[in-house]
Structures are given as C-alpha cells and as structure tokens.
Amino acid sequence: MKKKNDKVKGLRMGYVKFSGLGGYRGDMLSELLEDGVPVRNITVSDEEISGAVSPTDYFRVSETARRHGVRIKAGERRGLYFTLRKYRTRAGLCVGALLFILVIALWQTSVRSITIEGDAPRSQVMQILDECRIRLGASTDTLEISKAEHRILAEVEDCAWADVSCEGFRVNVRIVKGVEKPEMEENAPRNITAARSAKIVRQIPRMGASVVENGSGVNAGDLLVSGTVPDGRDHVMFVRADAEIIGEWTETREFFVPYNETISLANGEKKVFKYLVYGDDEYPLFTGKAGAENSLYTEETSILKIGGQPTSFKIKSGIYTAYTSQDITRSPDDVLSELQKRKLDFEENFFSEYEITNAEERFYPQDDGIRLVIDYTLQGDIAKPVPIEMGDMTMPETPETSETSEGGSDG
Amino acid sequence: MSVRERLTALEELAAKKSTVTFSTDGGLRNGGELCIENCRCIKELDDNFIVLSVYGMDIRVSGAPLCLENFGVGSVKITGYIHSLTFEENDQ
C-alpha cells in the first residue's frame, strides 16, 4: 500500500536520508518550516518520521529534532558532497585535478596553434601576424588582432575579407580573396575624340591615324585619332585607336571668405558610451541606445587592466560631441590664409589628375570679405575613346604626315 | 506611522494571505499535488492525515500515503493520493 518516492529532487549537492522516532514531530517540522530548512519526502508512519535533507542542513535538523524529543538517525547519503568527501584523502587525484586545471588555464594564456584558411601566401600572412605579436608562444593578452586584420586586408593581394580570431590557445585566420576581374579581350574598333575643348600640346598615338596637329584647337567631341585606316590598296581597315593626347585649357575659379561667419564646431556636450570588447564581440555597458543628434563621433579603445595587469578585455568608448554654432570674426590675414587653404583643397580634390602650368590669382577686397579669382592653365590627357559604329563607313581626311597605324610618334 | 511600522504592517498583511494550489498531473488516480504558501505550523502529522495551520484557518488533508516537503519559509507541498481537503476556522 505504501508507496515511497525514493527520488530526491532539488538538493544539488546531495542528500542525507533520515528517520526519527517518538517526540513531537509536528512541532519539529513546524520549526524547520519556520527556519526555511528544505526537507524533502517527509513521510510519517505510526511512530516513525522519515525524510531527506541537504548535507549542510542535516546538523540543524538533528538539533531541532533533539529539542523536540525526536530520536533521529541518518540513513543513506548520496550526492556530490559525499563523492568529493570520499576522495578527499586521495592526494594524487587532487593534485591531478589541479594540474589539469592549471595546464588548461596556462595553455589558454598563450598561443599554441595558428591556422590559416584561404588561398593566400602563408609566408606573407605569417610575417604580418608576427609583426602584430601573433606568434606561437605569445601571450593571448598582447595579440593585436584588429591591426592584423587591417594589415592583411591592405597588404595581401586581392584580399576581400580577413578575419583573425583567438579561441582559447588557437588563432584562426580566414582570408577570402575577391573574384578576379575576368580578362575581356577588347578588340572592337574605336576612335579617339576630345573629352573637352583644348589646345593640343603634344600627342602620342599608339594605334590609329592622328587627324590633329600640335598647337591646333579642338572642341569637345572632335575626332583626334581615327580608328579607320586606309591600307594603300583602296580599302580601309578598322583598328582600335589608342593614343595619349595632351591638351591645354584654362579654367577660372572663384573663392570667397567672409570676415564674419557662423560655423559649427564640435565642442559641445560629450556623451560617452562604453563597450566591453572581447575578441570580436562587443557588450554595451549602458542601457538604451547609443547615439546623439548633430554630433561628431569618435572612438577610443584601451586595454582593461585589473590590478595593473592587462587582461584580454578592452574598453571601447564611443564619444558623441555635439556641434555648436559659433560666430567668428576673421582678420584680413586670417581670410587670406583661409582662402589659400580652400584653394589648395580645391586643387587637391579637382585638379589632381591635371598639371597646373599657370595659376594667375587676383584678390578683390569687399566690404564683407575677400574674393579670390584664379585663372588656371591646365594640361592633361583629353583622349576619350568612342566605339566605331559599323554603319559609319566615312573615310576621314587624314594628313599624310601623321598617318600611322602602329608605333608612337611624339608630335 | 513610521516607515518601519508601515513595513511591519505590510509584512503582516502579506503573511495573512495564504495561497493553496491543488494540481493533478494525469488525473486523480495518479495522485495529486497540493502547494500551500504562508503555512504557519504543522499541527498534526500522520501517514494519511495532515493538519496545517495558516492565518485564521486550519487545513486538513487526508489521503494515502501522503508525502510532505517544505521549500523554504512557509512553503509546503503535499503529494500523494489526496482524498479530501477541509478548511476550518481557528482562533489565530
């Protein structure tokens, strides 16, 4: 009739089964209940009470039972607590377990294996890793993983994606190369026309028949080198014209800098959002969403140190500095230096492909600022290839002196 | 009323409320499970009869066989074939 549930749940470290005789069992259980001592599988027969408690609570249960006149007796003992207690005198097992933990811990602090995946020159990758302190035996705290990734991306040829990760004592490098551009054999006939209006300074035709002379002026779209060449036997042949045509032209640019101006400067309120970085993972150390409107974003990363010792963790600070509007007043010298700066920026951005042969500057002081007008004389390649439409069979009138089908002639 | 007194009053108020949950997992034939919160003491205990005291009431549980477990301060679980459940007012 009596069915006992032998399975004791909820006592992780193990359990001690007990049985007690006589006394005030209800009061004993009430006191244990009031003290919050977990007791499992309490069953009561005519004279006996039995149950199971955690090994750490058994002493308290026995004390309570004694106070209420219950003669308690410990029975079956099972669980992790007793297993560990059983082997506490086996020094070899303890030393072995400690050594095992020590070896695992020590091995995790230095690089023991480097794996490179992907079609990349191993020696080059290993050299980059070595220069980024990623080598066998190196401490995992000092690895410059981000730097290695950037260098691999920049230095390995055709590298499209690189990932360097450290897992335990193993460093994995994965490199994916981009799909090479297919070599397309382009042999369709074409002409060379002028990309802009200019005066021809010099020309190097490599293929085709030049139809312009040095010193002559051309408009945008004019034919410069023809891909239709007579073969001397009343026939024409189509070639793929190729040439370098250097033209010269002028351009006028204006720059104006006022004395008084309202500018936006990033010197307002700073909002800092910190992240804990481990490997490639980032964990925000704040609640909510990072970000601020109308702000300049900068980043700072530092190695987390505990007790002065560097750890594998890094702290990344994302700093949002708000822009503020500020009225500034420039002196004439400041205006001139600002004009020079804008001029240099413009030339670097827009004229870097051309040669500036002359730049005539004219300053016009005005009430509210200074205006700078510059007449640039530029030289550059104005050749623009245009495919020959096969329906167009008109023979160009080519000067005999510059007729050529192959080879170079400078002017 | 000071903050301490208010907290004490709230604590006493919480202790006056007891929740009794009875669940049968797979039908009454497979036994039941009775969970009682804020149990003050165990008045009587037997193989098939348990009397628990909560605020203002005694709970009599009869069944065979009954197994008792406590999970912390005032929380008690009774498992077994529960035949009846009686609530009686007491003087507390």
Q: Can you walk through the features of this model?
A:
The complex is a heterodimer of chains A (411) and B (92). With 411 residues, chain A is of the alpha+beta class. Among the domains of chain A are: 70 residues, VC0802-like (2-Layer Sandwich); 70 residues, Ubiquitin-like (UB roll); 58 residues, no CATH class; 67 residues, no CATH class. Helix content of chain A is 21%, strand content 44%. In chain A, a hairpin with a 2-residue loop joins strand 18 and strand 19. The longest helix of chain A has 19 residues. In chain A, 21% of the residues are buried. With 92 residues, chain B is mostly beta strands. Chain B has a single domain, classed as Sandwich (Immunoglobulin-like). In chain B, strands 1-2-6-5-4-3 form a six-stranded antiparallel beta sheet, with no helix packed on it. The two termini of chain B are 25 Å apart. The mean pLDDT of chain B is 83. Chains A and B meet through helix 1 and strand 2 of A and strand 3 and strand 5 of B. Strand 2 of chain A pairs antiparallel with strand 5 of chain B.
Structural class of chain B: mainly beta
Please work out how many helical segments of chain B DSSP would assign.
1
Mean pLDDT of chain A: 84
| Unreliable residue stretches of chain A | 1-5, 398-411
Biggest sheet descriptor of chain B? 6 strands, antiparallel
Our measurement of the CA-to-CA distance between the termini of chain B, rounded to an integer number of angstroms, reads 25 Å
At the first level of CATH, the class of the domain at 15-84 in chain A is Alpha Beta
Broad CATH class of chain B? Mainly Beta
N-to-C order of helices and strands of chain A = EHEEHEHHEHHEEEEEEEEEEEEEEHEEE
CATH architecture label of the domain at 15-84 in chain A: 2-Layer Sandwich
Largest sheet of chain A: 5 strands, antiparallel
Q: Kindly state the mean pLDDT of chain B as a whole number?
A: 83
CATH topology value of chain B: Immunoglobulin-like
Q: Whole-Å distance between the termini of chain A?
A: 118 Å
Portion of residues within helices of chain B: 10-25%
Strand proportion of chain A = 35-45%
Strand order of the largest sheet of chain A: 11-9-15-21-20
Overall radius of gyration of chain B = 15 Å
Count of strand segments of chain B: 6
